[in-house]
């Protein structure tokens, strides 16, 4: 594995594949949060901002989802984290996802030196990492299974040891991109959150969360095999 900044710990991962020794769990975020709450050069020039009225439309309710998603309380989101089209200089190919944990952004590289930029939450201190991975699989309203390390830290998670079914209270939310390296699931994901107050903060155990409406937009554009670059924080 060549992901950097990981703390060694023993443990196992889910049934998809065996986790290599020394790979610490970085699954989503604390169970309580789920219930409650390649070098690049960044130009950062905003070319397509979003008005309040447009934000209310883009982040409106999703009644046709398997589990209807409420509108985002956009007053809880700094407007700089609304979805935007920005100029973005990179050698990465269009379609590549680049996560900038320092600034709480996720970029999807587009043609012509542009990118779609989403506000995000990221790993809290001590749970950040960097490196290149790929989207190994995708899931809609996926089952979430806490790893043994999390259960050891938080015994209240033990009731979900056999999996928490999909739903609004599930930490993975409506859509999930599972991140793999060298054919092995890293236990990191890009996932959907219904907690707007988490955007722009370090709250997870190494995963990256987008507002559900943004995550669905990214998910629909992202095939399995897509490269994902996690920048250093």
Features:
233 residues, two-stranded parallel sheet, globular, 12 strands, 4 helices, ten-stranded mixed beta sheet, 30% strand, disordered N terminus, mainly beta, L,D-transpeptidase catalytic domain-like
Short description:
This protein has helices spanning 31-35, 52-58, 148-153, 212-221; strands spanning 40-48, 84-90, 97-100, 105-109, 114-119, 122-123, 131-140, 175-181, 184-193, 202-204, 208-211, 227-230.
Q: Could you please describe the fold and organization of this structure?
A:
The structure is a single chain. The chain is mostly beta strands and 233 residues long. It has a single domain, classed as L,D-transpeptidase catalytic domain-like (Beta Barrel). The protein has a 10-stranded mixed β-sheet, with helices on one face. A two-stranded parallel ribbon has the order 6-10. The N terminus is likely disordered.
